[in-house]
């Protein structure tokens, strides 16, 4: 098919392409071609090509670009979407707009079996939310993250794919042979990868369905022999696992401080604690530092090794992590 193309020297090709994109005249439906020392860049409107490019516009056959059709191309705007396995999650208060987005997602080339809209905030002790199913018929999926698979049902367990990078950061610190305790384990996004690195992991959660998925995920990822999954309050295992942990994960940011006495009781002689918190931007780390030092008392030396903002949680509030080493005195 013959289309208008800007013809320029190959060495100028990338700079000219960027300028055409900025001007809004780059034709994304046809392929750029090279012939000898000249590159031919398809454009949508020859009259709108910036004059200062000092480039000729010629008619030339150009192959159509084979590219996926996105929801944004269908809608004419970029919707806010989150992927979790083969589920696409939207977050829209307007039901009509939510269904419009769902229809576009299903009509696009985006791999997807179900589209959900958040119908409630995270609720209750088990930290789950309600969902509106806009397309498809299921809330169970398999999420893949850094080489691991996690089977889960978003209607029955808490799981945030947005924390993948943070989980990987923590897991990369784990050494083979460690004894780790994941105090609020969910379906295992910390516990399973830690076991994959050779740690022996005790993983505890109040949500019995989450623990069922955790056990399944340990099997799926070949680490069932190194994961002990326990359904119940982590405070109930303090006596059995007292002073056992080389590493503790405390990913319950709204109320982890209430479990610091338990964490200290579980900590071994040299233990790293990954403590998650939500605090105001004016002092995001101070409350956590003070709470940990108060819980450790005179029993441990407390060294804060890392203070990290994980993400913005709400206006002027951050979800943060403190990596803290407890060394018995």
Strand order within the widest sheet? 13-12-11-14-15-17-16
Percent helix range: 10-25%
Low-confidence stretches: none
Number of strands: 17
Number of helices: 8
Range of strand content: 25-35%
Summarize the main sheet. 7 strands, mixed
Rg from alpha-carbon coordinates:
26 Å
Question: Strand pairing plus helix content: what structural class?
Answer: alpha/beta
Listing every helix as H and every strand as E from the N terminus to the C terminus, the arrangement reads EHEEEHEEHEEEEHEHEHEEHEHEE
Q: How confident overall, as mean pLDDT?
A: 94
Q: How many angstroms separate the termini?
A: 78 Å
Can you tell me about this structure?
The protein has 329 residues and is α/β, with parallel strands linked by helices. The protein has helices spanning 13-23, 71-75, 95-107, 164-171, 191-196, 208-220, 260-266, 286-296, and strands at 2-9, 33-35, 38-42, 56-61, 81-84, 87-90, 114-118, 131-135, 140-145, 148-153, 179-182, 200-205, 227-231, 245-250, 267-280, 300-314, 317-328. The longest helix has 13 residues, at 95-107.
Task: Furnish the topology, listing elements before pairings.
Elements lengths: L1 E8 L3 H11 L9 E3 L2 E5 L13 E6 L9 H5 L5 E4 L2 E4 L4 H13 L6 E5 L12 E5 L4 E6 L2 E6 L10 H8 L7 E4 L8 H6 L3 E6 L2 H13 L6 E5 L13 E6 L9 H7 E14 L5 H11 L3 E15 L2 E12 L1
Parallel strand pairs: 6-7, 11-12, 11-14, 12-13, 14-15
Antiparallel strand pairs: 1-3, 1-4, 2-3, 5-6, 7-8, 9-10, 15-17, 16-17
């Amino acid at each position: 098919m013959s289309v208008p193309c800007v013809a320029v020297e190959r060495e100028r090709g990338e700079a000219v392409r960027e300028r055409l994109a900025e001007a809004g005249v780059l034709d994304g439906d046809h392929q750029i071609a090279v012939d000898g020392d000249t590159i031919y860049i398809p454009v949508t409107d020859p009259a709108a090509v910036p004059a200062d490019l000092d480039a000729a516009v010629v008619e030339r056959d150009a192959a159509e670009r084979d590219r996926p059709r996105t929801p944004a191309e269908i809608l004419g705007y970029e919707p806010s979407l989150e992927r979790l396995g083969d589920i696409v999650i939207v977050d829209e208060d307007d039901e009509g707009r939510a269904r419009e987005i769902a229809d576009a997602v299903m009509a696009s080339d985006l791999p997807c079996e179900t589209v959900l809209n958040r119908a409630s905030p995270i609720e209750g002790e088990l930290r789950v939310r309600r969902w509106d199913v806009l397309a498809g018929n299921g809330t169970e999926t398999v999420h893949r993250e850094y080489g691991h698979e996690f089977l889960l049902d978003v209607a029955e367990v808490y799981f945030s794919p947005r924390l993948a990078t943070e989980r990987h950061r923590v897991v990369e610190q784990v050494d083979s042979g460690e004894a780790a305790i994941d105090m609020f384990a969910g379906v295992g996004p910390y516990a399973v990868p830690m076991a994959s690195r050779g740690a022996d992991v005790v993983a505890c959660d109040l949500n019995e369905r989450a623990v069922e998925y955790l056990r399944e995920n340990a099997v799926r990822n070949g680490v069932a022999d190194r994961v002990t999954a326990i359904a119940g309050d982590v405070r109930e295992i303090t006596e059995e696992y007292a002073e056992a942990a080389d590493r503790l994960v405390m990913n319950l940011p709204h109320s982890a401080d209430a479990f610091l006495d338990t964490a200290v009781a579980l900590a071994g002689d040299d233990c790293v604690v990954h403590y998650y918190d939500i605090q105001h931007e004016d002092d995001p780390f101070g409350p956590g530092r003070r709470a940990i030092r108060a819980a450790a008392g005179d029993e441990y030396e407390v060294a804060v090794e890392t203070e990290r903002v994980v993400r913005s949680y709400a206006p002027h509030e951050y979800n943060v992590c403190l990596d803290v080493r407890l060394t018995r005195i």
